[in-house]
Design brief:
By secondary structure, the chain is an alpha/beta fold. It is built from 16 helices and 17 strands. The strands form 4 sheets. The chain has a 7-stranded mixed sheet with strand order 6-7-8-9-10-12-11, covered by helices on one side. Strand 2, helix 3 and strand 3 form a beta-alpha-beta unit.
């Protein structure tokens, strides 16, 4: 079997500039999101050019192609797909953002948010994107929403199982039973043909990093049952998006069959991952995570990493730096929290926000030392003047980038963070959420079981 190279990207969330990219309303929306909106066209142009110039043999896009299913966004994004297709075969799946499942499309003008935006219906998406998978399919399933799952042959011995998992008929992401039976038939057929089947869907099968962060609606409904059925059918690999994080994990079914899942982060938010995969002769996969290097913005060439990093960090810092109770409430509301309810507590919250902004390692230690008796005092002294927010920022970025900078358990960074988290566990030893926080921090510090940047799976 010859090797085959393909590239996976996810969550392009294309946003047409015709929907408004300036004014207070837009700034609140933009500041509440890890991904960029106004810059999506330029980011995608640059990423597609980078991919087109590579030696990849196919491009896979794992859903949420547009921001909220706006028709104009679909139309503009498809033109970019056609341009990329002139260089590389392109296969896409759509997801809930592509038909605005929450019925909340938005455009922005000054202080106003309007919802009178024409959107694409779910049953229009298959034909609209027919040139990017469905028309090349050797097998296809039309869901009850009118969306498409399909199988295409990428090479003589490699097939793609592109799955639309928007609804399972029980109010969650996933598959109705007739859809699942079709999936199992396709996996069986590929196995009989001695083909490796590569899966791609939008929602997660596995709660990556920790269910505290990626449980619930981030995954398909009944995720372990679904993962077990896929693994037992013979599917070994799944590529997903949705969470906007870069992370690899696996699940073993009760019957002992394993499926490995690569969660691909958003292309238009930090760190803009481009996942290059090689199918090796033994049917294992070698992946290498590249990143968008630069893009054009306002007539300048901008290094992508620092620009996207600062935009992501502003998600946290903007709330901490609220100027008054009204500003605080507006920023929380933009984050889809109950800003008006929290507004009245601002006088109590304000000193906490200030402490978090300004706290050093030493100041935090003094606050919790009655519960931090096991913290190495020499460790605290070495880092006493460092800002706590620098540690918070690093952990926040690690969530999205798959821990590009890992911290070994014997490093000062690891020991310091886990010491403070351990103090929380001492304060509330019976709280399951605190235990999950402890496990989450450990994964974010080390990256978890896999190297999320490059590995053979």
């Amino acid at each position: 079997m010859e090797s085959f190279r393909f590239t996976v990207i996810a969550d392009t969330h294309y946003f047409s500039k015709t929907l408004g990219t300036s004014g207070k309303a837009y700034e609140l929306r933009s500041g509440s999101d890890q991904k960029c909106l106004a810059e999506t066209a330029e980011l995608i142009n640059a990423a597609f050019a980078q991919i087109a110039a590579s030696d990849t043999q196919a491009v896979l896009i794992a859903g949420d192609l547009t921001n909220d299913g706006e028709r104009v966004s679909h139309e503009e994004f498809r033109e970019k797909l056609y341009a990329l297709k002139q260089k590389k075969p392109v296969y896409v799946i759509t997801a809930t953002h592509d038909w605005c499942c929450d019925e909340n499309p938005r455009r922005y003008s000054g202080d106003q948010v309007s919802h009178d935006v024409p959107v694409m219906a779910s049953d229009e998406l298959r034909d609209f994107y027919r040139d990017f998978g469905p028309d090349a399919a050797e097998a296809e399933f039309t869901t009850h929403l009118g969306t498409s799952s399909y199988v295409v042959r990428l090479s003589e011995h490699v097939k793609l199982l592109a799955l639309n998992d928007d609804q399972n008929g029980k109010g969650r992401a996933g598959f109705k039973e007739d859809h699942f039976q079709w999936i199992e038939e396709q996996i069986k057929k590929a196995r009989e043909e001695n083909c490796l089947m590569i899966g791609m869907e939008h929602h997660l099968l596995i709660a990556h990093v920790n269910p505290l962060l990626t449980g619930g609606g981030t995954c398909v409904g009944d995720r372990e049952e679904v993962a077990a059925r896929l693994a037992d059918a013979g599917l070994r690999y799944m590529f997903v998006g949705h969470s906007h994080i870069q992370h690899t994990d696996h699940f073993v079914s009760p019957a002992g069959n394993q499926i490995t899942e690569v969660n691909v982060g958003s292309l238009v938010g930090y760190p803009a991952p481009i996942v290059n995969v090689t199918v090796q002769p033994d049917q294992t996969l070698r992946y290498q995570v590249d990143h968008l290097r630069e893009f054009s913005w306002n007539g300048q060439t901008i290094p992508a990493a620092p620009y996207l990093r600062e935009h992501a960090l502003a998600l946290v810092h903007r709330v901490l730096e609220s100027s008054d109770k009204n500003d605080f409430a507006e920023k929380l509301t933009a984050l889809q929290l109950n800003g008006q309810k929290m507004r009245k507590f601002y006088p109590l919250i304000r000193p906490i926000l200030r402490f978090v902004r300004e706290a050093t390692v030493w100041k935090l230690y003094k606050k919790i030392r009655f519960k931090a008796k096991n913290i190495d005092r020499a460790l605290i002294e070495r880092h006493r003047d460092e800002k706590v927010m620098d540690y918070v920022d690093a952990m926040f970025l690690s969530f999205f980038d798959g821990t590009i900078t890992p911290h070994a358990p014997d490093s000062d960074f690891y020991r310091l963070v886990m010491s403070f988290v351990g103090a929380l566990r001492n304060a509330a030893p019976e709280k399951d959420t605190i235990k999950k926080l402890h496990d989450t921090c450990e994964t974010l510090l080390t990256g978890g079981e896999y190297d999320n940047q490059q590995a053979v799976i």
